[in-house]
Specification:
By secondary structure, this protein is of the alpha/beta class. The chain is built from six helices and five strands. Strands 3-4-5 form a three-stranded parallel sheet, with helices on both faces. It has a two-stranded antiparallel ribbon with strand order 1-2. The chain is globular. The mean pLDDT is 92.
């Protein structure tokens, strides 16, 4: 999705993710072999959908303070049933793939620059291997090299058959 600032792109993603409740209409998502209306899903159903089917990276990283970047990324895999050791190893690999230096992996992302925080946020979103991934301005605070890494991850996810809905201010894809 592209469009002017304030046109509702991010709001649409928040509606699809269930962070905002739609007052009218239907938002259908295929989850566990059945169609679910996100707009009417209860909290428990929404949590299951977020664990198994629907990933989301907002423009801003929101995490518990003092949790390491590696654990922030590993959490998405732990929720999907991957063991702690494997999740930690894979989290480190993802952080490296997103050009976050190894010496930062054990530090809390709240101490990072905006671009570093965005890369942690994106690593966490891609770590879940969700069938549908919502990305809100994934390249906004990144330099050209790191924006290309994100575009490559998006292309790989598409080739793997995953669906993505991405918001951009400009057409980078």
């Amino acid at each position: 999705l592209t469009g002017a600032s304030g046109s509702g792109k991010s709001t649409l993603l928040r509606l699809i993710y269930g962070n905002c409740r739609a007052q009218t209409g239907i938002i259908r998502l295929r989850h566990a072999g059945q169609w679910v209306d996100i707009a009417r899903a209860d909290a428990r159903q929404l949590l299951r959908i977020r664990q198994e089917t629907l990933g989301y990276a907002s423009q801003f990283l929101r995490v518990i303070p003092r949790i390491s970047a590696r654990n922030v990324v590993a959490e998405a895999m732990l929720r999907r049933g991957i063991g702690r050791e494997e999740a930690g190893q894979r989290a480190g690999e993802l952080l490296e793939a997103f050009n976050l230096p190894c010496h930062l992996h054990a530090l809390p992302p709240a101490t990072f620059s905006g671009g570093e925080q965005q890369r942690v946020n994106l690593a966490r979103a891609f770590a879940g291997d969700y069938p549908l991934l919502l990305l809100d301005e994934p390249t906004a605070s990144l330099d050209a090299v790191n924006a290309q890494v994100v575009c490559d991850f998006i292309a790989q996810a598409r080739q793997a058959g995953r669906s993505l809905l991405c918001v951009f201010h400009d057409s980078v894809m």
